[in-house]
Amino acid sequence: MTTERMAWTDRDRLQVLSLYCRLTFGQLHRGRPEVIQLAERMGRSVNSVAMKLSNYASLDPEVLALGKKGLSGASQQDRLLWQRFIAEPEAVACECEEAWLSLHGEMEQGEGGWEPDYMGRDVVGLQKRRVGQPLFRKAVMIRYDTRCVITGVRHEDLLIASHIVPWQERPESRLDPANGLCLNALHDRAFDKGLMGIDSEGRIRISRELAESHLNGRLKDQLMDLDGQPLDLPPTTSPNREYLAWHFRECFRQ
């Protein structure tokens, strides 16, 4: 039986924040299956969980950047957690995933627990998924003001939090927001496949392989004409240059 006025604990807030980062703005409602399932496992009403999700949306710069807003009424504890997520995304991501996985009975820990770090983890159930990826995405979207750093496009369904150093290559950097770029789907794919890189001066470089394929029309505009152009970065934010240098050296098909 669900208790309507249960006090919210720190773990409860972390569990809901973890779900928040897995959903898009349009999915934060009482009819969403994930919201219903979380409410059941927490022993709360679906309405209370949906409202808490919408409270987080009211604090989220990504939501505000897209011209949307959540429900006002976030508590002081909600605000403090969100502020800490902005300031220490990797540590809060670990706490969120620990709370989430403990609720779902999937977490495996040593005696020392889960120390805050940039170490993402693979969990194998029916399929392998990347633990911490949703919170990494949220942190990257906030970092880059929910804008593609190449085209400036703003639409949550078209934007991807791209790893600069790939997930498998450097586990300690998997959840580091400075190891991310906000890219649209086309340029994320080109970057991931080494057809696009960022040089030491922060300029976009397109591989010879693409140049020799004689692209024309819209693809030429969207890829080849970018060669030598700078990234479109927010004034106070930039990706980690060491990560970019690693990608340019190890992944870019020059």
Automatic annotation (TrEMBL):
Any matching Pfam family: HNH_2
Molecular function via GO: endonuclease activity
InterPro entries, A to Z: HNH_nuc
Keywords tagged on the record: Endonuclease, Hydrolase, Nuclease
Domain HNH nuclease: 148-199
Protein name: Restriction endonuclease
